[in-house]
Amino acid sequence: MDYDVAIVGAGPAGSTTAKFLAEKGLKIALIDKSKFPRDKPCAGGLPSRVLKRFPYIMENGLIESYSYGGYAISPSLKYKAKVQQKDPIVGMVLRKKFDMSLVQLALNNGTNLIDGKAVEDIKITEKKIKINLSDKTSVESKIIVGADGVWSIVAKKAGLMNLNRPYGVCVFNEYELGEDDILNLFGKERMCYLHLKFKDIFGYGWVFPKKQHVNIGIGMLIPKKYEKEQQKNILNVYKDYFNILKEHKVVPDNLEIGKCCGGAIPFVPLDKTYSDRVLIVGDAAGFINPLTGEGIYFAMTSGEIAAKVISDSLEANDTSENYLSKYQDLWKEDFGKDLKFYRASTRYMKNSSEEVVRLASKDKKLASIILGIIHGGLSVSKNQGKLVRRLAWVNFKDRLGIL
Can you spell out the DSSP letters for 193-204? Predict the structure, then answer.
């Protein structure tokens, strides 16, 4: 089977790449080891900028519900910063439904889905890509896109994977509740919770209410320099978190912890996200917000950028590494500064999250900026200076005792 582009991984990054390429009339194969529809380890929260950049998400009714505010809770549980807005800060989705819908949009434009078949080998030559699948069939294409997650086989085969890069792990469960229960517990605003450095882990706990579900999870970031320190049993941390939520009446007393799911997330981008006939997008490229683990915005945006570069390269009949390097220039220009800021902030928040939440709990404007940046509703590049100035001003007033 011959294609212009083969995309490995049919999550938001891969399906978005496929959609935009198929709209150009190109012949696209979208390959995934799982049979669709399938579920995915994820909290299922989409920052408002996802909805603004990709309006077809709302136009196609893919959002289950909206959250209009949230709380950030300090590691000691002593301080709580609250933000509530008129416009939604997060759109909530069920990943099984959301991912299948994004795939369907790609299929509607002519993409061919090859699901339930794993990629076993990839051969990259001067003339083509050959992909061998688990059912002994093969696919050939001019370009391959790696959208296959943190342990990407495409990145490995292209020599782009850094196996020593830091990573994160998460444990979560999604619980079905009645819609009345959701409203009683989280209000009509469906307030979210972020517990920073819970049990002193280098990470966070989250509670995301949806229409009839609540997603509860713990994410632990493991940079190499802290790896020994973070060798804790994350499932035990999740159990403690679940019990604390019950104790503080965030979730119902009779809710059972159930069988939890887990997953891995990247912590830093790959040094290089392109090669001859190869581009890497989404989690496979390491595009993630390490403050919250959110990656859907970066997944879909990198897919959109990749589609533009690929389309241009095929039109120019140039699939070389030199031509495809434009992709890395473009994603760095688009969201590269955001990723750098988030990484720097994790180091700062590791040591200062208690103090930051304490100050934010006393100043609504500071809380709004912090949670806006964390959730992705505010641009980092446009608000970084504002955040630093506000934090300094609030800290100054606090020292004078006038807060």
Answer: EEEETGGG-SEE
Residue ranges per structural domain of the chain: 2-338, 351-400
Token pair listed for 194 = 């972020």
Scan for tokens 């997953």, then name that residue. 263
Tell me the CA end-to-end span of the chain in Å, nearest whole number.
67
Looking at 271-377, list the stretches that DSSP marks H as alpha helix, in order from N- to C-terminal side: 282-285, 296-315, 321-324, 326-331, 337-360, 364-375
Give the tens place of pLDDT for each residue, 177-197: 989 999 999 999 999 999 998
- Confidence bin at 226 (pLDDT 50/70/90): very low
Contact 343, 380 (CB under 8 A): no
3-state helix, strand, coil in the chain (%, to 5): 40, 25, 35
Q: Which fold has domain 2-338?
A: FAD/NAD(P)-binding domain (3.50.50)
Mutual orientation of helices 12-22 and 95-108 as an angle, nearest 10°? Answer: 20
Continuous H helices in 361-379: 364-375
Please spell the DSSP secondary structure of 264-285, one letter per residue. EEESS--S--EETTEEE-HHHH
Residue whose structure tokens are 């970084």: 384
Q: How far apart are CA 97 and CA 118, in angstroms?
A: 22
pLDDT digits (tens, 9 = 90+) for 121-161: 999 998 999 999 999 999 999 999 999 999 999 999 999 99
